[in-house]
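Consider the record:
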Amino acid sequence: PYGPLVNINDTYADFSLFDESRFMRPMGGRVFKMIPVESFRGCPYACTYCNSPSQRVFTKENDLGNFMRRKTIPMLRDELRSYVDQFSPDFFFFVDDSFLARPRQEIFDFCDMYEEFKLPFYFNTRAENCDPEILARLKAVNCYRIAFGIEAGNEQYRNKVLRRKITNAEIIKRFKWIADSGIAFSLNLIIGLPGETRDLIMDTVELARAIQGYDSLTSFIFTPYHGTTLRKVAVDNGWLDPDTITKHNTSKSLLKMPPPYINADEADGLLAVLPLYCYFPKEEWPQLRLAEGSYE
């Protein structure tokens, strides 16, 4: 009953359907005429809060092939050239789940190809995909900004529950390289995860405080998307009605967890001030704690 997976090298987006004003987007304090580009579809990682792993399982079980597909560098070059010729953009936004999660040589092949364009560009990736050589090459071809998902700061919780297999020490080392590269970067955090306590969230704050060089930080409420392992964990524990339809990752938490786990109101209060815990001196934390509630 399922059709074959498309060959993403066969075609690319027709942005002529959109008004030119739709391309004007803010990034790093400036507004650019920005074209979104997909260089590969899917993700090789097994993060339990994401639906990409279930897409790979589904396509494999139904003999459809591998959901994760990458465009060839020549195809990607032709696509970028088409956008430049048609729309004269001044920025490319790569929308891949994790842009650098590809063979190392392919990263350098991309950079060699991108010498033709050198327009500023942005992407999401993971710290473990970065090293000084890769970062220097990206900087040389005008990488403007990178976003990194940290998600959770407690090493044991992150490894065992989220299936993010990296130590805090390795994360901090990698971000030292990233900061030294001169490429601007931001961090993404998730709070209100299944089985998460306030102490675990403050471990996330502590890791963010140990990372130097980022210029912005975004925090999200955990969203129990269908097809994710953590949605099943929440349902199995009675923390989520199985018929619940998700909203978006800044809406109020949909989980109903008992103490000592974080509840929806507590998660909302923490979300409002979480970046301040990362930026402010610890002697200010008692005042920030007050700011989590509705105090005059």
Observations:
- The CA atoms of residues 43 and 52 lie 6 Å apart.
- The longest strand covers residues 143-151.
- The chain has a mean pLDDT of 95.
- The radius of gyration is 20 Å.
